[in-house]
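Hello,

I think I submitted the tryptophan job twice by accident. Can you confirm which output corresponds to this input? Input:
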Amino acid sequence: MSSPIQNILPPHDKQRILTGITTTGTPHLGNYVGAIRPAIEASQQADNLSFYFLADFHALIKSQEPEKIHLSSMEIAATWLALGLDTDNAVFYRQSDVPEIPELCWLLTCMAAKGLMNRAHAYKAAVQANQEASQDADFGVTMGLYSYPVLMAADILMFNADRVPVGKDQIQHVEMARDIAARFNHHFGENFTLPQAVVGDNVAVLQGLDGRKMSKSYNNTIPLFLPEKQLKKHINKIKTNLLEPGDPKDPDTSTVFQIWEAFATPEQTAEMRQAFADGIAWGEAKKRLFELVNNEIGDARERYNTLLEQPEHIEEILQQGGQKARTYSQPLLANLRQAVGIRSFTK
Ligand code: TRP
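Support: Only one job matched these inputs. Its output is below.
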């Protein structure tokens, strides 16, 4: 038998910050800068309560490769732990260890306007690609992809998150969660906090090797915990132009500079801006970029490698996190069932 359901909602006395990472692929610098780093900083503030999770149900939308999803889950968990996530303060869990989330997803699905889903970027991009290839508009589109924003809304609303740190591309999804929550509240009473997206103000979307947004789907990433030599190699592969040493270079169109800015202090950024104006050689700029990045993540990389050798330890932390998460999700879901009319006959 499962443990008795707690019916008392824990107090909402702190700002709740929540974010998830889809478990497809290995965390890269873009994930780090856009999501992980600001999330870990937020978790260290005493007036916040952070919920961070592995979005492994979301992974199934994008990947049908079980081994990859499994490995990626472990790598992401190890990444957050290695970077100093304090799991005594933060609630750190797998989405799939909280069965209330898919159940809530259904309640929300029944509140989510189909027209709203039609406007979701990921779905629209798939339709557009089909149209360009003269295919049926919905060719290859699963219901998972189509209702992706509803599952994400369930992730967020399950814990009544106040703030959701995400990359720019995810703002729309958080707004959809707000919409769905407002509609639910309108029908069934004030059950949900309306969440707000938070995008880091310096560099929210990091550029990848080819200058486009750093993304697994573009295959242009720099994995976060590459061995030092490989990190150097990757940084050397960042696309630049043909300007020679001594030629002034434009920092604002340079991926090297953009990544620099994401890791540097404002003073270091000003210095690099000047170095670009003075015609720093691309090789030199990349060498400095490597040192800067390597400095910030070097210690964490060692902890990461150690953690990956102790998967039982990671599992134990996640199980504890899942239990903690359920002290929030179980009472809320019990209230929601009542609210929508799914109730026991015996009381
Ligand atoms: N969709 C997010 C991404 O691909 C991951 C995610 C899933 C998420 N659920 C979430 C992010 C809830 C924030 C809140 O990046």
